[in-house]
Amino acid sequence: MSVLEDTPRAHWGLAGFCFGVCALLAAVMMTSGLLAPSPDPDPSIGTVIGEIARDIRLAATGSAKDVAPAPEPAFDMLAMLSIITPVLAILAAVLGGISLFRHEGTALPKLAIGFGVGAVVMQFAFWLALLICGTVMIVSIVSNMDGIFGG
Question: N or C terminus: fewer CB in 10 A for the chain?
Fold first, then answer.
């Protein structure tokens, strides 16, 4: 006969751990570019920057008749992953919290909360880095607009 009480199995923690692992996998797949559509032939950086500058100039002058309308995208897996990742991460953290509240074993709930928070932080850091890089690129294009078009 044992003096210690048996701790219940961590059913909620296991479910949270599984959701946390799925959330972390979704975040890694999203940030790695594994599911990104492959571009046609690789255009040069100058071509891409020139197209961005042309779009900015046309939008600023108000004459967008040279630009063809963009086709409607089909199914965008990256957009779906950017929505699914925080949902799975929050679900993992909530299930881990429920497991800790029910005094189940502590290893799986702590991992579930850690994976959930890690997936949210990873996704946030990725979008923050993209925002900073995009802002730097747009500022450099706009500041060099006269040099690009020879004005």
Answer: N
